[in-house]
Specification:
By secondary structure, the chain is mainly α. It has one domain. Helix content is 80%, strand content 0%.
């Protein structure tokens, strides 16, 4: 029997082992690539969310400062001294020195007033 006849099955076995190894290697590389792409996408999403969060914090600070300015303006405009000054200087109003309330009519008088009408 020739010697090469026994080598053929061994060569096929080695080729099958190499083929299995290559398939396993290709699958491993594909999985590793998918994981790397996922990791990059996740990092990108985290950076985007961080930038959005910083923008929201900046906007909140700006609005808070504007709110403080408006509170100060409301306090200034609602000052009783300022309102009194405007009432006297621009509208010609003065504080009442004597308040005179009308006296109610007597019960019998209202019937007489109604009858005279």
């Amino acid at each position: 029997m020739p010697a090469y006849a026994y080598r053929a099955p061994r060569t096929r076995r080695k080729a099958a082992q190499r083929s299995r190894f290559m398939r396993t290697f290709v699958i491993f590389v594909a999985c590793l690539t998918v994981l790397a792409v996922g990791r990059v996408a996740l990092s990108f999403a985290v950076v985007q969310k961080t930038l959005q969060t910083e923008a929201v914090v900046h906007e909140e600070r700006r609005i808070s400062a504007k709110n403080d300015e408006l509170r100060e303006e409301v306090a200034r405009l609602s000052s009783t001294v300022r309102i009194s000054h405007i009432a006297e200087s621009q509208l010609g109003l003065v504080y009442a020195s004597h308040i005179d309330y009308p006296k109610p009519l007597k019960i019998g008088t209202s019937a007489t007033v109604a009858a005279n009408r």
